[in-house]
Amino acid sequence: MNMVQAFNSLADTWTWQVGNAAWQAALVGCILILFVRWAERISARIRYAILLVALAKFAFPPLYSLPTGVFGWIEISRAEISANVQAGGTKEIIGSQSTIATVTQLSEVQGQSASRRSESQSEATVPIEPSRHSESITASSARDLLAGVIQSPINESSSASIHLRQSIVGSGNVSQTEAWLKAAMIPIAAVSGLGWLVLAHAFGMLVCIAMLSVRLLRLHRLRRSMMSPDRRLEATYRETAKVLQVRRLPELLVSSERTGPYSFGVLRPTIVVPSICAGHLSDEELRVALAHELVHHRRGDLVINAIQIVIAIVWWFHPIAWVLNKSIRRVREDCCDDALLESRVAGPSEYCQTLLNVANLCGCHRPRSGFAVSMSTDRIPLADRFRRIMDQRISRGSRFAWISGLGVLLVAMAVLPGLSQTSTNEGVAFKADANLSGASTPDSDEQARTPWPATTEFH
Hints:
Helices cover 67% and strands 5% of the residues. With 459 residues, it is mostly helical. Helix 2 runs parallel beside helix 16 (401-415), helix 4 (129-150) packs antiparallel against helix 5 (159-169) and helix 14 packs antiparallel against helix 15. The chain is flat.
């Protein structure tokens, strides 16, 4: 039962941390997502950096505060937190001790019952009433012992174990096997509601990991079946990488998939071009498609995508995390479009024509693996993308980059820090200890007349 107590205590801590992190991240995520969607004409790099700040909020400790944080205006009393934890731990100890006493005394009664039955059967010549009499004594003794333990103080998380003990008491003749089976269920019944919530969270994470593992295995098998590019495609690829000044060239492969060109791999970067695109696109169109994927690798988008996957696994139950990841992927493509137009690899018209030809050949099918990023995706309508590419009023360059970076840094310093903790509220801890012990103090009347300081303060 010590493991059950530790697990319930861990569940309380988990609920406190995750609960505070969830509402803070939801608030920050909603505000920044709405801002990014409202300010569509500002630089995509700025919008992308702002969304990454919202993503970092899901990984930032919710109770780590800084003087620059807006959440630092809300103070949480450390005394109250520790008092609640100590009170919950004491109740768990009481409930577990009563449970252990029940199991121990029930086993002793069952052992006495077995010895009495063996003695009565060996001494009596005719097997009559003594065996039944010993069984009735055993059952009544077990009922008395269990009934006495049930009346002991137990916390709410042990309510299920109380019903289990009552079923043992009211069952009449209790066999040893049945008693031990029911006693084995007591630790499971002692798990608190928050404990089951933690188990559900862990189960959801395991399901997400299993799904991603299947996709990763499928991508690995598909990679083994891919072919090397021909000389024409290889020459175009190296020429495009030289124009974009990409030093570390990802591996270029050709697949038989009917998808648009895509990239994957953090430790082993790879660019995949479908054979249908390599055979039907012109050299200029291939150069544009390869430039888009090279920009993904140059910007480090594969690393950010891997971080998104990890946060999505941990926060699989949070809807804002999914909406935020979708917004990041959409703005990421805008960043690549702006970088490609800024490098003058192609003009707006040529770039839109290339996207349209790739969509006609591949049907805008995106890669099935969540580890890949692609230039063509069914999640972004081509009409909206064309409208943005052709819009001359959108800022695409790096003018005033340092001012934009400073603004994003200020936003991060304001929203990333969490709640502040204060240790000045000592009266709350004293009050909680007094209520827990049940003893009166000499200054109890004076404390009752003095209002307790608030545990949450707004500056």
